[in-house]
Amino acid sequence: MAFVTEWFWFFLLLPIAALSGWVIGRRGGERHSDTQVSRLSTTYFRGLNYLLNEQPDKAIELFLHIAELDKETFETQVALGHLFRRRGEVDRAIRLHQGLVQRPDLSDQQKVQALLALGEDYMRSGLLDRAETVFTELAALDQRAPQALRHLISIYQAERDWPKAIENATRFEEATGEPMGKLVGHFECELAERLLSTGDIDGARAAVARAYAADSKSVRAGILEGRIEREAGNDAAAIRAFERAARHDTDFLPEILPALLAAHARIGDGPGARAFLAEMTEHYRGIAPVLALARLIETEQGVGEARAYLAEQLKDRPSVRGEAALIELTLAEANADPTRTLHDLKHITDQLLVRNPSYRCGRCGFGARSHHWQCPSCKEWGSIKPLLNYAVV
């Protein structure tokens, strides 16, 4: 049924476009007889009947027949080519759209539409060089052809030609007003990665600067800048870059922390590391900054202080990794109170059990704490079952 819903309007519009051409022709008395119109209308309704009865293959064949009979209507032929492409008959789509492009009676708008369709055919068939030529011609023909520019961006991404991808993303933003800064930022970072791999540090730095100019909150640019400065031996600059990246998006903190803390350690800046980790525990609900801070406390103040800090933090943010670290610290503490640790672990485990789902839908993955016979998400019946780690025998 989903297939019918997705394709219904496309198939509906295709014969309507054809029928409008027949009606015009009938009014002029030149192209189609009443008998032909009646016969094609009957075919059209047979196709709709196939769709409604969930027989899309038969419907497709009928609509192809309708479109092939109306070879003069431009919109119908473009739609027919799209249908060939969707069916995997890319060669037929290419031949049809090539013929349309060469028609002398097309308006400028129709020429643009036919070129777009032909370029999409080439992309589907993997002929990226031909697609690039078509879309470049189209962008030159109509500077406001955003689809052509979007396709060129896709082509240059596939070819990893980052300068051209950047150029066309910039042109796309100028033509449409749609912000492309984040995408351009990633392209500049890809270019920086390439330059860095060849030892061109200055070129990589320049690319990172352009990435920041395109996207001032680029986490990737911050991480790259940190890597560049770290490899150049500028740990203070690397720390600034890594910390800026973490503040822009704390979700990336686990990726940033190892290199950041290593840089702090190399310059002996324990207080700076502790201050940053304390800041992150206020903004990041994961366990990574807590575990890192516990390790620093262990180094500077001893195992007992680290264990006490971690146990207190885990009451608010229970974590399996945190439990493992707490057990490790307890085993390392000479005078540890096992009863106290067991109480802490039980509290943490209770919190984890409360927060984790006890049931999950096998169809869509929806998690629930209580059982539902019908999934609230996908509406499937009987698909929600107890999780294996919940069942008790």
TrEMBL record:
<keyword id="KW-0408">Iron</keyword>
<dbReference type="InterPro" id="IPR019734">
    <property type="entry name" value="TPR_rpt"/>
</dbReference>
<dbReference type="InterPro" id="IPR011990">
    <property type="entry name" value="TPR-like_helical_dom_sf"/>
</dbReference>
<protein>
    <recommendedName>
        <fullName>Lipopolysaccharide assembly protein B</fullName>
    </recommendedName>
</protein>
<keyword id="KW-0802">TPR repeat</keyword>
<dbReference type="InterPro" id="IPR041166">
    <property type="entry name" value="Rubredoxin_2"/>
</dbReference>
<feature type="binding site">
    <location>
        <position position="375"/>
    </location>
    <ligand>
        <name>Fe cation</name>
    </ligand>
</feature>
<feature type="domain" description="LapB rubredoxin metal binding">
    <location>
        <begin position="359"/>
        <end position="386"/>
    </location>
</feature>
<dbReference type="InterPro" id="IPR030865">
    <property type="entry name" value="LapB"/>
</dbReference>
<feature type="topological domain" description="Cytoplasmic">
    <location>
        <begin position="26"/>
        <end position="393"/>
    </location>
</feature>
<dbReference type="Pfam" id="PF13176">
    <property type="entry name" value="TPR_7"/>
</dbReference>
<keyword id="KW-0472">Membrane</keyword>
<dbReference type="Pfam" id="PF18073">
    <property type="entry name" value="Zn_ribbon_LapB"/>
</dbReference>
<feature type="transmembrane region" description="Helical">
    <location>
        <begin position="6"/>
        <end position="24"/>
    </location>
</feature>
<keyword id="KW-0479">Metal-binding</keyword>
<keyword id="KW-0677">Repeat</keyword>
<feature type="binding site">
    <location>
        <position position="361"/>
    </location>
    <ligand>
        <name>Fe cation</name>
    </ligand>
</feature>
<feature type="binding site">
    <location>
        <position position="378"/>
    </location>
    <ligand>
        <name>Fe cation</name>
    </ligand>
</feature>
<keyword id="KW-0812">Transmembrane</keyword>
<keyword id="KW-1003">Cell membrane</keyword>
<feature type="binding site">
    <location>
        <position position="364"/>
    </location>
    <ligand>
        <name>Fe cation</name>
    </ligand>
</feature>
<comment type="function">
    <text>Modulates cellular lipopolysaccharide (LPS) levels by regulating LpxC, which is involved in lipid A biosynthesis. May act by modulating the proteolytic activity of FtsH towards LpxC. May also coordinate assembly of proteins involved in LPS synthesis at the plasma membrane.</text>
</comment>
<dbReference type="Pfam" id="PF13432">
    <property type="entry name" value="TPR_16"/>
</dbReference>
<keyword id="KW-0997">Cell inner membrane</keyword>
<comment type="similarity">
    <text>Belongs to the LapB family.</text>
</comment>
<keyword id="KW-1133">Transmembrane helix</keyword>
